[in-house]
Amino acid sequence: MKILVIGSGGREHALVWKLARSPRVETVYCAPGNGGTGLHGVNVPIDATDYDALAEFAAREEIGLTVVGPEVPLIDGITDRFRARGLRVFGPTAAAARLEGSKIFAKEAMIAAGVPTGGFHPFDDAGRALAWLRDQPEDCPWVVKADGNALGKGVLMCDNRAEAMSAVERVMIEREFGPAGDRVSIEERLFGYEVSLLAICSGQDILPLAPAQDYKRIGDGDTGPNTGGMGCYSPVPDFPPALVEFCREKVFAPILRSLDFTGVLYAGLMITDQGPKVLEYNVRFGDPETQVMLPRLESDLLDLLEAAVDGNLGNIQATWTPRKAVSVVLASGGYPGDYEKGKIIHGLESMADMPDVTIFHAGTRIEEGRTLTNGGRVLNITALGNTFANAIDRVYGAIHSICWEGMQYRKDIAARVRE
């Protein structure tokens, strides 16, 4: 079978890497891909949002399955377009993808379905949002979210009323996140620890994947602005199988009853004193969760994806290594704000033979035989170990071999579970 993966980030490199290992796969194409996806497959110079060209390529090359990585094509309806042409595609429809495309739609759907989540207040006018906040207690913490897709950056954590009002102004008046800020959701701020739980879904069939914990803030100790994710680890020791089963019944099953959903449903959870509560849903593989989960997956990923597409998910299980995985994101200087591209990355060749260490490229490109930075999040370094301490030592030991001008990364990924 020939496979097409759509996207150009670290998640897509991990998908290409894993799918290429399937004995049933002939070639994995990636559109447009990055400097690493071409190491395991064939990069195709088609933008991830050029939907007609992607469909033409899939039809012409007789692609057996297309796997959509990023959220934007799903929100735009790429699955609907492919299905209309009789092309097999893994990913939800545009109607189902509203769970990620609109924070307000997702909250309303959660509450209607009885999914445990925090309270929220939607606004489509900055004046009304600010007036409402003025009536709230001064020291009350909030989360202000741009309603639309802001590529993981439109969530502003606020410790008090003044910070929440400033966040509303940034989103709705200063338009920091563009059209995504046409509306805002002002939400109850939940406290606890976060867990990412992804599930492959097909109708009412749910196959939970291994839990992971992501680090969203740019700085050590969870400081600074939110990013697309600066690192991750899996499994999560204090998220046992009983909680996974609770989430299957209370987080995934209720929301799926009202949707025609085939693909990955990602639940961003806060584990509070009252139990798991949903912070957000995404409708695709997480990034960097994918880069830390797939090295632990012993099953053939293609089998799982095809079972979902073909309606056979209830007859399949996933198997995982008990080993621990830690992934650290290496980012450009200035990220998540402005940053420069085109910096030469040094040291990748020295990592070729490091045991249990895998490099997933994100924002890279190859030019005249050199690997250059081409985005905010540039590389994901993932290591496996029999213990978290072993995996942590391996991943940071590998990072010491890599450098480019301005490179930044967090030094505390998985520190809370170090044994």
What does this structure look like?
The longest helix is centred in the middle third of the chain and has 16 residues. α1 links the parallel β1 and β2. Helices cover 28% and strands 27% of the residues. The chain is an alpha+beta fold and 419 residues long. The mean pLDDT is 96. It contains twelve helices and 22 strands. The strands form six sheets. It has a five-stranded parallel β-sheet with strand order 3-2-1-4-5, with helices on both faces. It folds into four domains: 94 residues, Rossmann fold (3-Layer(aba) Sandwich); 70 residues, 2-Layer Sandwich (Dna Ligase, domain 1), CATH 3.30.1490.20; 123 residues, ATP-grasp fold, B domain (D-amino Acid Aminotransferase, Chain A, domain 1, 2-Layer Sandwich); 94 residues, Alpha-Beta Complex (Glycinamide Ribonucleotide Synthetase, Chain A, domain 4).
What does the oligomeric state look like here? Answer: single chain
Report the CATH C-level class of the largest domain.
Alpha Beta
From the 3D structure, determine the CATH topology of the largest domain. D-amino Acid Aminotransferase, Chain A, domain 1
What structural class do you assign from the helix and strand content? alpha+beta
Keywords:
alpha+beta; D-amino Acid Aminotransferase, Chain A, domain 1; Dna Ligase, domain 1; Rossmann fold; 4 domains; 419 residues; 5-stranded antiparallel sheet; single chain; 5-stranded parallel sheet; 12 helices
